[in-house]
Amino acid sequence: MNYRLLIAFFAALNTVSAQQYFQQEVNYTIKVSLDDAHHILRGYETFEYVNNSPDELDFLYIHLWPNAYKNGKTALAKQLKASGDEILISAPDSITGYIDSLDFSVDGKSLAWNYHTEHIDIAKLMLKEPLGPGERISVSTPFRVKLPSGQVSRLGHVGESYQITQWYPKPAVYDENGWHEMPYLNQGEFYSEYGSFDVSITLPANYVVGATGDLQTQSEIDFLTEKVKATEEKIAKLD
């Protein structure tokens, strides 16, 4: 009898746990261009935020992770210093990076926002109306990223070679434990919401993009095929 009651108790716990689980959804449309003369990204982003939680949300936390490279006071700078790397401490402009030119809006109406009290790579975006369970909202903003030196961390450039990671404004994760508004760090995982991405990238003609997915533009496929052929011929001459 006690054994059966124990099974029923655990079954009830599993049911409650399954009912509490949810996952938010964020779908992005981003257009961005590279200014390789000044090492700057200029972009425009719209993200659809789907509230699959049982809670009303009055605000969204937004990661602005390029700001982690802005000065020697960020969480990233402090982490690097603790490990013996003071590259961001009193760094010149050629080393630092940041994101600016932000103007978050919904239906053409600007939203109020402010930086996190401790971390300049996190913003708190105030919604004009609470976003209820099952509801969705589309938020747009222009943005500009001054790319830091590739010596610092994952985002950056070495000359005209660019490593572009964690570069656009994106909502922090909201789950059963609440908001995870964490700053950018050099070591650790980047806990983020799942969703879809429609990204248009404009580059000077002499650049090649390395990214996940299947390339669709035939002229670019032909260009890369020629590069592969030329590389194979050079390697063959070395044998």
Characterise this structure.
- This protein is an alpha+beta fold.
- It has three helices and 15 strands.
- It has a five-stranded mixed β-sheet, with no helix packed on it. A four-stranded antiparallel β-sheet has the order 7-8-3-12, with no helix packed on it.
- Strand 1 and strand 2 (40-50) form a beta hairpin.
- The longest helix is centred in the C-terminal third of the chain and has 21 residues, at 218-238.
- The relative contact order is 0.21.
- The mean pLDDT is 91.
Helix content: 10-25%
> Are there runs of 5+ residues with pLDDT below 50, and where?
none
Q: How many angstroms separate the termini?
A: 78 Å
Number of strands: 15
Strand content: 25-35%
Overall geometry: globular
Q: Helix count? A: 3
Structural class: alpha+beta
**Going across the major beta sheet, what is the strand order?**
4-9-2-1-15
Question: Would you tell me the overall average pLDDT?
Answer: 91
How would a crystallographer describe the biggest sheet? 5 strands, mixed
Give, in order, the helices and strands: HEEEHEEEEEEEEEEEEH
Evaluate the radius of gyration: 22 Å
